[in-house]
Write a structure and sequence with these properties.
Blueprint lengths: L1 E8 L2 E10 L3 E13 L2 E11 L4 E4 L3 E5 L4 E4 L1 E5 L4 E12 L4 E11 L9 E13 L2 E12 L4 E6 L1
Antiparallel strand pairs: 1-2, 2-3, 3-4, 4-5, 4-6, 5-8, 6-7, 7-9, 8-9, 9-10, 10-11, 11-12, 12-13
């Protein structure tokens, strides 16, 4: 499909200049590619969506925005929607609006809160990890940040 493509598949909506699909794998690219799924929007120059795995790959970089105002970007982004997990590699940057947290690292593994679970969302920052919140700055090779509704805690720093 060419030119101002809009593809809708169940609860996912994708817009792009071009889109190719075989029924399970959809490749969209050109201009601003936007795939919206549940409470997240994936944006990048090229988005691969694998329906069966509910997996999104943005190999050329991209951004994941949540309806809560959180923004996660990197040179290479991956997202597994069923697991509420995303991984950013290369200049990974995570901004959590509710926590007023800004965090960066070479790699960021983000685990969203699972429905019905008491465990908070968390982010693992690896390589040149820096987390800034209010007047506090943490720097380490590896940080684990627990993201709760009104506060974020750094639980580990190596």
């Amino acid at each position: 499909m060419l030119g101002d493509v809009i593809a809708v598949d169940r609860d996912m909506r994708l817009t792009a200049d071009t889109c190719v699909t075989d029924g399970n794998h959809m490749v969209a690219q050109g201009n601003i590619v936007r795939a919206t799924k549940a409470d997240k929007t994936y944006t990048g120059p090229k988005v691969d969506y694998f329906q069966q795995e509910d997996y999104i790959l943005m190999e050329s970089g991209g951004t994941i925005n949540s309806t809560a105002g959180d923004v996660f970007s990197a040179n290479r982004m991956e997202g597994w929607n069923k697991m509420n997990y995303a991984k950013g590699t290369g200049n990974a940057h995570l901004v959590c609006a509710v926590n007023k947290l800004d965090a960066t690292g070479d790699v960021v593994d983000y685990y969203g809160k699972k429905q019905g679970s008491a465990e908070p969302a968390k982010a693992y920052l690896t390589g040149n990890a820096v987390a800034v919140q209010a007047n506090n700055t943490l720097r380490s090779n590896r940080l684990v940040i627990y993201l709760e509704d009104e506060k974020a805690k750094a639980a580990e720093a190596e």
